[in-house]
Each structure stands twice: as C-alpha cells, then as structure tokens.
Prior knowledge:
The structure holds two protein chains of two kinds. Chain A contains six helices and no strands.
Amino acid sequence: MHRKLTLVMAVLGVGALVAVAGIGRAEDAAAAKDASGTPVADGATLYQTKTCFTCHGKDAKTPLLPEYPKLAGQNPAYALQQMKDIKSGVRANGQTLAMKGIMHLVSDEEMVVLAEYVATLEP
Amino acid sequence: MKRTWIVAAVVVALGSTLPATANEWLQEGGEREEALDLVPDLENGLSVYEVCSGCHLPEGWGTPDGTFPQLAGQHTSVLIKQLADIREGNRDNPTMYPFALPRTIGDAQALADVVAYIEKLPMNPANGQGPWEEGAPEFELGKKLYADNCVRCHGDTGEGMPDKYYPRIQGQHYKYMLRQFEWIRDGKRRNANPEMVEQIQKFSDTDMSAVINYVSRIPVPAEDLAESVDWMNPDFD
C-alpha cells in the first residue's frame, strides 16, 4: 500500500515537474526573438527541425557515430560556444565539417535556445 | 640538363594522369553495379529510409532553401550511384557521409531497398524556384541555354536518363541545383560526368543562374506530384 502510494506520488511529482519544465520552455520561447523580431521556436522543436537529432540522437545521448558527442546535460555556455565556433569556422577540427554544412540554418538566438534545451536533458 | 628532363617528364606524367584520377564519374564494378542487380524489398526500404528522413523529410521533399535536395521521384540508378559514390569517397559530402556508411544504413541490398522506396514517393508540388518568371529576359536566356546544352542528356523536360545515371532535374530545388552546378563546373564535385564538366565550362555565373532558374520552373507531370503541399507521408506517424 505504502509502495503504491509512493509510486502514485512519484508519478504525480514527475508529471508536475514535466509540466513546470514545459511552461518554463514555453516562456523562454515566447521571450526569445531573432534579429528581425520573429519569435524563436522552443528548444525541442528546434532540436528536431534544425536536424540536430539526426547526428546527436533524439535523446541527445545516442549519437549516430561514437565520434559524435552526447549533448544531454552539457553546460549551455560550452554548447553555445561550440555552435558559434563551428558555424563561423573558427573551430574546424574533428567532425565539425559534417555540422558546418547545416549551421547556416541556425540563428544566434536559436543557438541560445538550443544550448539551454540540451542542458535541461538528463545525461 | 638531365634534371630538366626529369622535371619535364614528371610534369608531362602528372599532366596526363591527374585529370583521369581526379574525376570519378563511373568506376567499373563496385557496390553500384551490385545494388542495381538486386531485387528490392520495399518494407526494408522504408525502415532504412527512417534515418534519411531526418534531413530529407519523411516525404523525401528536402528543403526549398536548397540545404537538402528533393529525393522523391529520383531514378533508382541515380540514387544508388550517389549513395555508393558518397560512401566510397568519390563525392565529398561531409554532412551526409556518416549516414551513407554501411554501419549506418547497411549493405548493397539496403541501398537497393531504400532507393526503390524513395523513387515511389510522390514529389513536392512546390519546389524551390529561381526568381525569374516566364517572359523575363533571364528566364528566356536560361531556356535557350538549356536547349543548347542540356537537352541531349537531361531531356526536353529535365527527366534525365536512368540507364545512363543522368538525374531527373525537373522539380529539384533551385538553390540545391545552383550549388551542384557550380561545383560541377569548377571541379569540386568529383563524381560529375566529364562531358558535362566540359559542356558547361564557359558558363558565366549569370548563365548558371539563368539555366538553373529555367530548370527549377519546368513543370513536373501531375501524376508524379503529391496531391497537395500539405501531403504527409502516411508511412510515418
């Protein structure tokens, strides 16, 4: 009985956390706008539409190749800096050529949202 | 004197071998020929296609901004050649390369399966087009350039020639074709047909934009198009 109750409470708790996280994301998305004033999509949407998941995995921790990094739980400042440097070409080593080919799709504001999104994921 | 001769001989040797090794249009044998002879399994083709759909989308329509080409409706021979070329290192595409690897999508049978699935997908009714409408001088220039330079291989309506690995270019996104055309002209795309490379050597950038604009506006036969731009591939939920 106790165990059942604990389980129910845990489920409710997780549900509430997810809901809070969801609201948090929605607020972030509403706040973020690009240079032209267009609202930036939320992190989960960007992670899919900008094709991040194809290489880094849907959960951001099962990359396509072992040479590609896991992103879930990464420090957002680090993730943001790598995206910026790969896009600009300042960083051009390792596997970065594969990612450079799509970075024209991602704006500065979207990079911030993406960096914050991957940081929230369970490593 | 002797040294001069050696240098001259080396220069001559390099001159005669470099163009042949730099271009990789068609190599004998290899996975391309193997995959072409296999009987495709469409169900497995769908399963293989899932990884491709991340960028080329479930509909196989790519993106009108030209980042990813439309694959739907492309000839199986062309798709097999490009996949085999990318994974064998004959066409440089760092973004796609890991997805073309055998450890990602499978062997020659997987190639045969996935291309058979892709070819049958209905095409995008709203591909990315160039800026000039019929009647504009640039459109007319492109139309003439197409008739004079491209028809013999790509056909009157850009339908291509499956037996010769000449791609269907009707319905393809303008910006994708522009990029590939430039790379073919300038020698960056190593698996290009050498006859095409020669044919377009004298194209200026203006000629290039004009001819690609024209191609991007060639109508695709209605029976090959999806019913609407909102069509979604029912194989993906």
